[in-house]
Amino acid sequence: MTDCLFCKIIEKEIPSYPVYEDEMVYAFLDITQTTKGHTLVIPKKHVTDIFEYDEKLAAEVFARVPKIARAIEKAFPDVVGLNIVNNNKEAAYQSVFHSHIHLIPRYGKEDDFSITFADNGSKYTTNDMATIAQSINKEIL
Asked: Domain spans of the chain?
């Protein structure tokens, strides 16, 4: 894709700070550095988001995540956790439309990054939950 920022990074048309590269994946430091070591893992094949992955690509990309995560942990002994974040489509805060996985090292609760989840569980009955699960399950091929 000619106008994709991450494709240009893969092709070395735009400089980056590489962390890992092989035939399927390129990983590099996110320029925002939400926390020290914040890394993006991207497939070299252009896919917009998770909805465009096939099983083979998903297996290849996601298999690299633990290796890179362990490297971040070893590189920075003060890492006490790691968030793995993948935003898909604009409504889910995706801003670069080449699929990417954020690996965000955590150094403590005060490291200027947080994710919160609303607890809407009380809005759903057990029957609602069963119906939701069945709706998803019947679509899995």
From this structure: 5-114
Burial class from Cβ neighbours inside 10 Å (0-12, 13-18, 19+) for residue 36 reads: middle
Let me know if 100 is a catalytic residue.
yes
Tokens of 138: 């019947």
Determine the Cα angle at 131 with ends 127 and 132, to 5°: 120
| pLDDT tens string 20-47 | 999 999 999 999 999 999 999 999 999 9
Query: Which residue is catalytic, options 38, 46, 100, 102?
Result: 100
Using CB atoms within 10 Å of the CB of residue 127, give its burial: 0 to 12 exposed, 13 to 18 middle, 19+ buried. Answer: exposed
Question: Hey, how many other C-beta atoms are within 10 angstroms of the C-beta on 52?
Answer: 13
Residue 125, both tokens? 């009955």
pTM of the predicted structure, to 2 decimals: 0.92
Asked: is 5-114 a CATH 3.40.47.10 domain? The reply is: no
DSSP letter at 67 equals H
